[in-house]
Amino acid sequence: MSNEVDWRTFNYWDPEHYVTFKVTGSKETCIEAFNREREKFPTMQYGTVISDKKFSGPIDECFAVIKRFKTKDLCRIHHSYPPTYVREGKVL
Asked: How many domains does the chain have?
């Protein structure tokens, strides 16, 4: 992707921009999987997060949904999405 993105036409919330997967097992298993993913795809470069989780209840029913951007460039584009006052042309 180029450095300049037209925020008026770029589909910021397209599911194609993300990698999402679910880990099940114990809370420790889920956290370990998240930490391994963060080692490969650091949060500050890929936006790696746990987007949903359930750590209570029976051990084998815990889960974590891990989500990140597919590329560093997509993370940068999303990070620099203009605030509402810029998008709507309003002066603060």
From this structure: 1
Indicate whether 7 belongs to any domain: no
pLDDT value at 4 more than 80: no
Q: Which residue has the tokens 């097992």?
A: 25
Asked if residues 38 and 48 have their Cβ atoms less than 8 Å apart, the reply is: yes
Give the per-residue pLDDT at 51: 96
Q: Which residues constitute the domain of residue 48?
A: 15-87
Quick one: how far is CA 78 from the chain centroid? 10
Q: What is the pLDDT of residues 45-79, one digit of tens each?
A: 999 999 999 998 777 789 999 999 999 999 998 88
Q: For residue 1, tell me if it sits in a domain.
A: no
Query: Among candidates 73, 4, 68, which has minimal Cα distance to 34?
Result: 68
Is 29 among the domain residues?
Answer: yes
Query: 60: how many CB neighbours lie within 10 A of its CB?
Result: 10
